[in-house]
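Q: Hi! First time asking for a complex rather than a single chain. Here are the components, and I think there are three in total. Is that enough to go on?
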Amino acid sequence: MAGEPLPTSTPPSGRTSREPSRARATAVASRYARYARLLRTQIRASLLLGLQYRADFVLDATVNVFWTGAAILPLVIVFQSRASIAGWSFGEALMVTGWFTFLEGVLDGAINPSVADVVDHVRKGTLDFVLLKPADAQFLVSTTRLQPWRATNVLSAVAIFAWGFHLLGRAPTPGAVGLATLSMLAAVAVLYSLKTLAVSAAFYFVRVDNLTHLFDSVFDAARWPSNIFRGVVSVVFTFVIPLALMTTYPAEALLGSLPIRSLFGALGGAVVALTLSRAVWNRAIAHYTSAGG
Amino acid sequence: MSLRNTVRAFPTLLRVGFADAVAYRAEMLIWVLATTMPLVMLALWSTVAREAPVGRYGQAQFTAYFLATFVVRQITGSWVFYDINFAVRNGTLAMRLLRPVHPLWAYAAEALAAMPMRIVVSLPVAIVAWFVVGWAGMTHDPFLWAVWLVSIAGSWMITLLVNLLIGCAAFFLESSLKVMDAWLVAFFVFSGYLIPIDLFPPRLRAAVEWLPFRFQIGFPVEVVTGAHDRGAALALLAGQWAWVAAGLAATALVWRAGLRRFAAYGG
Amino acid sequence: MIRVRALRKHFDVHERPPGVAAAFRSLFRRQTKRVTAVDGIDLDIAPGERVGFLGPNGAGKTTTLKVLSGLLHPTSGEVAVDGHEPRRREDAFLKKIMLVLGQKQQLLWDLPPAETFELNRAVYDVPREQYRATMRELTELLELGDLVNKPARTLSLGERMKCELAAALIHRPRLLFLDEPTIGLDVSMQAVVRDFVKRYNEQNGATLILTSHYMEDVARLCPRVVVIDRGQIVYDGALEALVERTRPDKRIVLRFAREVDARDLESLGQLVRHGAGESVLQVPKDAVNGVVGRVLAELPVSDLTVESAPLEEVMSEVFARGRGSR
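A: Yes, that's all I need. Here is the structure of the assembled complex.
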C-alpha cells in the first residue's frame, strides 16, 4: 500500500565494523527481517482490503467450496463406470485433485492478483512508483495483492486428502508427507516462475492478460493425473506447461510411489525455472527503465 | 425510451458492434484457444471409453459430443456481463443512460453483432469435427437440425439474459464478478459442458434437467448428436424457451430496481 | 430553460472504520451515515445562458448536474428542464441534452471516432442530411481532419477530447452539461475547447452549464457563475461582481528601470511581492488612481499594470469565509 511507512533502510555495511563477516551476517539477517516485516504489512493490508467487501467474502467462500465440489463431481462420475483409469483408483486420483485444489489456491490467492497488478501498472505507467521504493520490485509486486481468503483452499485440500486416504484404507507415512511437501514446493516455484515469465512479457507487449487467461485454461487440466493424456496434448503438458510436475508428482509422493529420480528432476527444474525467470524479469525491468516507460 | 427509436437505430448498432468485434479478433482467437475444457474432457473420456463404452458413449460418441460442445459454447458465449459491470463501476453507464436508446437493447445488439465473428472463429473446429466424426456421431434428421438451430437461438438468449441479469447485479453488489464466478461454476458442472447429462447419477440428473444450465449447452449438443427423437426434442425445446421467458421477466425486474438504486446513489 | 426549486439530495453512505477488528465487526453490522449533497437549491437559467458552477470538491456541483440530466433522482424539490421532468428520461428530453464528462469517455475505444459518430447519429435519430452538414461543420471547427479514421485508443488526450465533443454535438443538443471538460489538457488545447464551446453556444443559442477546476475556463466562458458550497448556493451572479465583492483591492504590478528600495513602496500600500524583476502592490480600489500617480511621479517605473486579485485566491477566500461563518 502506498501509504504504509516502509521500515528503515538496511544498516551500514561491515566496512566500519571490526568484525566484517559478522556484521555482514547481521545485515543479511536484518534484511530478511525487514522483508518479513514488509510481508506482514502487505498481508495485513490485503486482509483489510478483502474485509471491505463483505458480499465478496461470503461469495468467495461459497464459490471456493463449490469449485472444490465441482472439481470432484466429474471424477466421481468417471469412476462410477470404472474402478481404475490409466492405473489410478478413485482414492489415488483424489490425491491429484487435492493438490490441484491447493495449487489453485496459491495461484488465485497469491500469484494471479499480482500478475493483474503488474499488467495494470505497465498499462497505466504507474510501475515507476514501485521501482522507486527501497525494496526489491519483484518482491513488492508479488506480495501487494494477496488474497488471504484463498487459504480456504488449503482446508478443502486437506479434506480431500483425508477422504482419499480413508478410501484407500491407510494413512500417509511421515516420509511421504515430507517428500510431497518438497515436490509441492518445486511445483509452486515452477508455477511462480512461469507466471513471472508471463508478467515480464507485459513489458514488451501490453496485452498479456489474454496470455495469462490462456495459461489458466491449460492449467485447469492439472486436476487430472497426467498420464491420461496422450499424443500431442501430453507433449504440450510435459514441456510447455509441466502439469505432471505440478500435481501428479506431489500426489505420487504422498502415495509413496514417486521415483526419487523424478523428485530430483522436479527440484532441479524448479531451480532452473526460478533462476531463468529472475534473469528475464531483471532484463524486462532494465528494458522498461531504458525505454522510459 | 421508445421502441420505435430503438428499432430504427438497431441496424447501425449491429454494424458498429460488428466492427467492434472485428477489432477484437485477436482476443477472440485467444479465447477460442483458451476453450480447452471440452478437449481435455474429450481426452479424459476417451481414455475411460477405450476398453468399453460408458452408457451410450463410445470413443466416437464422446468425440462428437465434445466437439459439438465446443462449437455450441463458442457460438452462444457472451461477455456482455463484463461490459456492463465495467460501465456500472466506472460510471460510464451514465453516458448510455442519457441516450434515447435503452441500454439493455444496445447491449443485446452488441452481443448479437459479435455472433458472425464467433462463427468464423469456431468454424475451423466445426470443419475438423466433421472430418473426424463424419456423419456417424450426428443426427441425419433435417427436422432435428431445424430444432438445433432454434435451440442454439434459445441457448444464446439464456446466456445473454444471464449476462444482463448478473450485470444488473452490479447495481446492488460491490462486486458482481463473484456472482458471475459462482454462476460459471454451476454452469460448467451442470450444463453438460464437462459431463454429458445422461451420465449423471439418476437422482442428480433429475434435478439437473430442471435447471437452466442444461439448456445452455447440453440440450443443443444432445439434439445434434441424435440423443433425442423428434417428440422429446420438441418437449425440451418448450422447456428451454420457458426459461428464456423467465429470464426476460427477471431481467426486466432487476433492471428497473437497479436503475432506481442508481438514481438514488449515482452508482 | 431550467427551473429548480428547493432541490435536496441525500445519500446514505456506509461508514468503514479503520482497523482489522472494526472491519470484521462491520462485516455483520454496517453503520450508515446520511450525507446531504445538495441542500435546498433554487436556480433559474434562461435559454442561451452560459453558467459556471464553482465550488470545492464535494460541494454538490456534479450531483446537481446529474439531477438536472436525470441520472439522479432528487430526494425532494422541483426540477424542470425545458418543460421536462429530467428523472423521467423521455426520449424527447434526452435528445435535447448532452453530458460531457472530461474524465470519462463515450468514444468506442478500439474503433475510429467516425464509428461512434455514426452510432450516435442512429441513436439520436438524426436525419442524414443534417448529420452530414453537422459533421462538415464540426470537422472544420475542431480541425478533426483524418483523426476520425484512427482508432480512438491511438489518439492523444487532446485529440480524443475534440472527438468526444464532436460526438456529443451530433444531435445538436440545446442544453450542454460540461463536467471538467478541459481536465488534463494542455493550455493551448484548453483554449481550443473553450473557443469551440463558446462558438457553439453563440451560433446555436444552446444553454451551457460548466463545472471546472480551471478558473480560466469559467472566467473566459461564463458571464454568470453559481458558487455552490456544502450543497447550497452561496453566490449567483456575474463573476466580476463576485471578485469585486470578495477582494475589492486592486493589484498594481510594477517594473522598474533600476532597483527600488522596498521601504519606498511599503508607504504606498500593502507590498505583496518585491523582487528583482517586478513588484506587486495591493491597494484599495478607491486609492488606485492616487497611488498610480505617486508611483509614476516618485519612482523610475518602466512598466505598470493594474489587475484584480487572481481568481484562485478569490475563490479560496470565498470558501474560507463560508467555513468561518458557520
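A: The longest helix of chain B spans residues 230-265. Let me know if you'd like any chain examined more closely.
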